[in-house]
Amino acid sequence: MENFNRKKHWEDIYENKPLESVSWYQPNPEASLHFIEQANLPKKAKIIDIGGGDSFLVDFLLKAGFEDITVLDISNAAVERAKKRLGDEATKVKWIVSDILDFVPDATYDFWHDRATFHFLTVRQEIDRYIKIADQSIAVGGILVVGTFSEQGPKKCSGITIKQYSAQSISDLFQTCFRKIECMTIDHITPFDTKQHFVFCSFRK
Q: How far apart are CA 49 and CA 103, in angstroms?
């Protein structure tokens, strides 16, 4: 999309649309929590949620007692909404406002979670950069979880063309740096009672 301003697009969304009116609204992130449970992480594990915005995963992580949580999102408005919702609990989280492609980690993470950020990268150069950043950011033995629209899912999200994946195609991309653990498909039911078919895969570095 020529001259598309990714940051402005997402700032506009989060400044103008209520949480319950966006298609990715998910009060109980079951698939994400499944992978976190499977990882059997210690409470001091370094966890980063890529494109976490004002999703509820951070709420569940805090309730579970995790002590080192980072949320990264391109939208400052999304981060501010999450902070407001969490109140005093927000001080227990490290918040980073950045495009994932500009992210320069100052730590290595034990668990990298991404629900529906990666599939917005449709150019091979951006895809390769994401994989390189993930590789640099995740500790040896750490886990990467990526969720995208599947080949049976939507072709656009929030008016933006996305890249669909199968379990095989997403595994092929990450296998140079990571070893696949598990893939699963789920149907996400939107607030408009429509289905979005996702594929989630987990990998170990």
A: 13
Residue 73 β-bridge partners: 97
CB 82 within 8 A of CB 14: no
- The region that residue 33 occupies, defined by phi over 0 for left and psi between -120 and 50 for alpha, beta otherwise, is alpha
Return the CATH number of the domain spanning residue range 43-204: 3.40.50.150
The helix/strand/coil state of 117 is coil
Q: Residue with structure tokens 């949320």?
A: 71
Structure-token match 């091979």, residue found? 124
When pLDDT is averaged across residues 95-119 and rounded to a whole number, the result is 96
Alpha helices in the chain (DSSP H): 6-16, 30-39, 57-63, 76-86, 124-137, 167-174
How confident is the model over 141-166, as a mean pLDDT? 92
